[in-house]
Amino acid sequence: MAQTEKKGGLLRKSSASKKPLKEKVVLMYDEIFTTEDPSKCNPRFWEELFLMKVNLEYLEGKLEALDGEELMKIKDNINCLFQHCIQALGEEHPIRVVNALQTLCALIRGVHQKNKSTSGFDIINMLVGFDKAELCMKNLMESLDSLLCAEGSESLKSLCLKLLLCLVTVTDNISQNTILEYVMINSIFEAILQILSSPLSRREHGYDAVVLLALLVNYRKYESVNPYIVKLSIVDDEATLNGMGLVIAQALSEYNRQYKDKEEEHQTGFFSALTNMVGSMFIADADEKISVQTNEAILLALYEAVHLNRNFITVLAQSHPEMGLMTTPTSPVPTTPVTPLGTTPPSSDVISSAELPLDADVQTSNLLITFLKYSSIVMQDTKDEHRLHSGKLCLIILTCIAEDQYANAFLHDDNMNFRVNLHRMPMRHRKKAADKNLPCRPLVCAVLDLMVEFIVTHMMKEFPMDLYVRCIQIVHKLLCYQKKCRVRLHYTWRELWSALINLLKFLMSNETVLLAKHNIFTLALMVVNLFNMFITYGDTFLPTPSSYDELYYEIIRMHQNFDNLYSMVLRLSTNAGQWKEPASKVTHALVNIRAIINHFNPKIESYAAVNHISQLSEDQVLEVVRSNYDTLTLKLQDGLDQYERYSEQHKEATFFKELVRSISINVRKNLAFNTLSQELLLKEFSTIS
């Protein structure tokens, strides 16, 4: 007997002796694509259609092949198909429900693909008809809500979420997708929360649910009242919030694990051996090749949770026993292909055992630690556009955290100490820090380490000014909390001071190049005011009196940089150019730093001359400093401990619109390639009761 092959909806014998035969479902699709009502000749047409396995490729291809005029001719049949799909969602037989969900996906995608240039209202008319749109969409949303909340099949729930993601992402700009008005009116918010609060549902569908919620929150968020924003902002159920945190932590951990695996693979490779032989001169180039796709979708979800919901802040510090108890599965788990923006969900709800133990003594991790590690990776290389966006979003999230009173309370809590192994960019002039030597410290130390690391490693021609400004703002906000609450943090402040002085040095060295693109005086003023904050209020939050002495030592030791900065801003503030005003602000801000330098330098020179010492040691300089505080006069500067709070709508709207657009495109691509396969679904429902 000749073997039968299937291709593009056709059945043909391998001998090719006869014309190819079409599948029955394809023949039925062809009937829908005529101007006649297909149920006229066959009253059971719609019942039979939903017993047939959907041919997504053929149905979408058929829709795309028609021009606008041809599509309008069969509009009644398309409307009829859409309405019967919705009716089939209420059927008892799961195979009919599966096929209806699949068909809806194909219809929505196919019609949208065909009508890219037309308005959303035309799409609604084409799919369901204006007259029946409200009722049909209400029924659709209610059916999806029931399926998501029911005790039934996990595969059905998965397909419902895929359909919703398909519905949300059919347009690049989700705010132009007017079908979403019906998703706003007929909310599925509670169904999403139910998935996140249940361990089983969360494990199966948590990723899709979180991404769906993040996208829905961004629908016309600046133009109208979005019910998903309102509802997300008042969620206070602990299980739900922790569930959301677990999904986000798991996705970020998966990224961290993949990066670590690639890093280890890279270090044990041939290039690493060659590097060891010839020294470290090529180390930066070698490590640039380590690349794992970033995950903006899950990062957006974290941002919305932190930004909108004050209760979610508590989740950041929650340890994750679920992750700790799980082990990596032995059987391979199927994964979806990685897209350019990494919107693919992780392979399973499992954290590798390597992610959890930060070392032998500390066995728990939390969402904030995982996020800080993720940030330390994506912020290494800002030359890549996606990483730049990821890095910016990481800093925006940290900005929201740094402004929150409760977040600051646990960040600075001496009873919550962790070893946080941040990834550090390989640089020629420093050795890689050994993980075992990491001290156990409050979490704010890891945030400050991350900021210092960024400051030190991004002084380059393509200067990421915006990221530097955000970075300095985060440090400032943390210092404001410490000053206000008199928190004496035991931190290596010298590393921060050194990084800030080197940043000023870089700005001066590259004045001409940078001024062509940026107002570097804004950043210089922020850095100088950080020093003013330490000078004016340091005695209230620096850990010891000797720390305050060390601040003065660093300013005196590096006085040439401050002198050069003063000369530069004085030159520009006395000229009638565009930089006159911003430069003069820096001139005024330097008054106390210059007073310190001008007061102590003559005293140090005098001490050296009297004692016949050509070069003073640090202890000797500190001795001069301590004995001459009394005669130092400083000017009180106002507003050093004040800052403008973060505002998304006024300053970040364009960034988020572009980000959501990118995420929407990539979620859609993900769905299009492989996540709507029926094989597993039909295997689950192989019999009809």
TrEMBL record:
Cellular localisation: Membrane
Domain Armadillo-like helical stretches: 435-671
Keywords: Membrane, Transmembrane, Transmembrane helix
Cited Pfam families: ARMH3_C (PF08427)
UniProt-recorded name of the protein: ARMD3 protein
Gene Ontology terms: cellular component: cytosol; membrane
Keyword presence, Amino-acid biosynthesis: no
Transmembrane helix in keyword set: yes
